Structures
1.
Amino acid sequence: MEAEEIKKAVRQNDNDSRRRLFEAYYKKTYAVAYNILRSRENAEDITQDAFIKAFQNIHQLHDETKFGAWLAVITSNLARNFLKREKRIDYTDREMIYNGASEADYTEESALRSLEVERVRKAIKNLPPDHYQVVVLQYYYDLRVEEIAKLLKLSPGTVKSRLYRARQKLAGELELKDGSACLNDKGGEGEQ
Amino acid sequence: MTGQGKPEKFNDELIREALARDFESIEAPPADECWRRIEAGLHGRRSPGQKPGFGWARYTAVAAAVLLLIALSSIGILQVTDIAAPMAEETPLEEVQVEKTPGEEAPVEDALVEDAPVEEAPVEEVPVEEAPVRATDEKTDALQVEETEAPEEAEEFEVALEEETAEPAAFEVAADPSPPEWEQVINGNLHFEEAVLLNAGDGPDYQGAVYRGEEEKLLWVKSQVDQEKPNSFIEHLVEHIQAESLKIEIINGYIYFEVAGQPGLAWQEDDQNQALVVLSGLISRQELENITSELD
């Protein structure tokens, strides 16, 4: 969905527009919820609640083009609160099926790249919810630290610190896996 | 946005690619079913096979929560994480108000609503007369539950304990002669100012730390009392800071309270009661909640 289309849909907020927004963001929203909750059923419920909240409060979104990021914040906050309420992190439902492309078609270079991406993907999924949240907002939704801080109602310092720690964790995890890190603890805006 | 060096760009790119792959490849349940439930939720009706979402606890859940509250309070079993009002045991239960919000987690709302201060969080109060659940007996011997028309999204409850006008907290405390090791900076912008001993009330002394930001002042308190009930902790804490008004809400396992119009948040960690109280400036509930997760 193009930025203009998103803007229009957010402004209209009628049933058709909502449906278009839902279709554009359903999988991403579910992925955010699932990666925090590790439970399909709970992720489904949180996804549903996140869309309802978003559509009901859509007038509070000042920059319509940021709908995706805003929805991700709602989703991750709902999921985090759910975990806090439950006081647990359920790792029992981690065998998620992914439709990864067949690796047979890859050249050696692209296969290596793909493996690396896969390792990073798995490492990202192991981040704590508050770190995962800022990583998604910065790297997927391309938000600046100040924008993330505003959305999360945190100070930019806290956001930077979370991003920094998230990258450190990613680097640490990837290094631990095979002794050759593909990430260092730098990158992005979060250098301390 | 990204680092300037090549390796960092490469790393950032890897993260982006990994997230994109994750979002695109995840096998989500059928979208149509979810959409049907969203539509039903938006129109305030339950669709066939609809799961009760976390944010849509129904009237019955509220009634059950209130009953649980009374029962737990009366037998003295109450943990911070229980959906029960800890003050109910020691303070007559005046009334139970049911609030309606667009979702279940009010703190979340604070975070998702841009520029919306906590006070403006979209919470509609249901007038007491119209509240679907009302506990009338002060000592909880009998609980009257009136079945009136329940709002669909009724899910939080507030126990109004006292109606006195809030007075500014006259915060007079002594310096702590043997303070524990307090964090130097919390929330990225609140700096440790002084360790204090809260000993103004009749209850046990508590150790605390005052943090100061540009305009904000926050008190972090830890209790050393074993087996202390959260309600007693909050009561004593409020006595210590010499405030007279107290309003409690239990949301998502946290105890939110209000002292002299300022928010506070209490929780238990390793059976030890702790609280954050805003003394001045604007710190939202969501920020308080975020601070507690940082402190973990």
2.
Amino acid sequence: MTDAMLTGGFADPPIEAARAFRAAMEAMARPGSVHRVAGARPPAPLSPAAGALILTLCDADAPLCLVGAADTGEVRGWVAFHTGAPIVGRGACAFAVGSWEDLAPLDGYPVGTPEYPDRSATLIVDGADLSQGAGAGAARLSGPGLKDAAFLRLPDVAAFGANAERFPLGLDAFFASGDLVAALPRSTCVEAA
Amino acid sequence: MTATDYNFAYLDEQTKRMIRRTILKALAIPGYQAPFASREMPMPYGWGTGGVQVTAAVLTPEDRLKVIDQGADDTTNAVSIRRFFARTAGVATTEATTEATVIQTRHRIPETPLTEGQILVYQVPIPEPLRFLEPRETETRKMHSLEEYGLMHVKLYEDIARHGAIATAYAYPVKVEGRYVMDPSPIPKFDNPKLCSPAIQLFGAGREQRIYALPPHCSVVSLDFEDHPFEPSKADAACGLCGATDSYLDEVITDDEGGRMFLCSDTDYCAGRQAAGHRGAAQEDAA
């Protein structure tokens, strides 16, 4: 048990979780839009934004999968102390957090069932590139939540395109970087720009 | 009484996390009814327990809350829910649609167009559009998963066969993003075109334990037939107080001799028009 495990949670959980959720909800409702989430200081390598999403959404009923470099003793201790979320493998998780290299490939996560497509995992892609606007590497997003097309730098356009094809099954993703977060629900149509 | 006597927005944190996870999945699958573990609330089922739980999960201290019941800000249900959150969350409240960031509604969409950044929370009595056609939940789940909505069209067809037109006047079924058929809650079909909105729309059914959602600018199509297209209908009259001809009207009986008048159902819209100098027939008679 180290100090890093015991500190870095929300100072005022009801208020800060409410604000973090509103940012997460706005992000999920408007794919590609970038929002600030503050208040969490998780151990490395997690970003403050990924930490805030974990504090806001994970608990004993929402198991978390730590992939690759995110699976450290300190991160496990921090998650256990602040949320009580079970740490599980990717096949049983409600949320999975890590870098894109560690999260991919996307098979192996629960994608829901035809009758209950909500029983699917949400990925938290940490260390994502959230720079705005069209340009090199940006994917064009269209669909629910978007009046006009939006642009987001996806780590793998083909993988998220294949995920959208499975609608209504599929995975939803948050992208975290520093204290910023964006999201890509399965309903969004993804094309290389 | 101050907000510190309750946890922020009444519900405990674990309950809010559960509702918040459900809202995110509901937004990711527009029109799909996501189950959630609805809690007992300090009000009876049918008084908006689903809407209250969704509102509690989305509120932040910076919000300004408006609550309407059948369009009115000043009815018992609207006043008590507004006071409930003023007391347990300490949020500011308003009756003006344009000033509100979160609007909880029972059976109406405000006449004033909603904007980006606003959230509309619906109270839903029966979320399953197929429930009166097929009572078994196991079967309606299967029908949604197989996109088997023929029965709904049969129901609308039977309306036409018996009445010459689609007689469904409220809770008119819609298809969301070409996939899920959804019950928009018992809003009049006059409001259906407003379901395509820049605001986030969340639907909470407490007794039935379902949450569903429409992200902004979502495609929402009212079911109809080529030869019987969907028509958003309203009483063919003008508001007696403000003279509006473009708003949804309630009929009010004024005496026991057949006297009646039509009034805007949206009280904020009607008051706003009257403040701007618009007058209806009833006002001119009185003057």
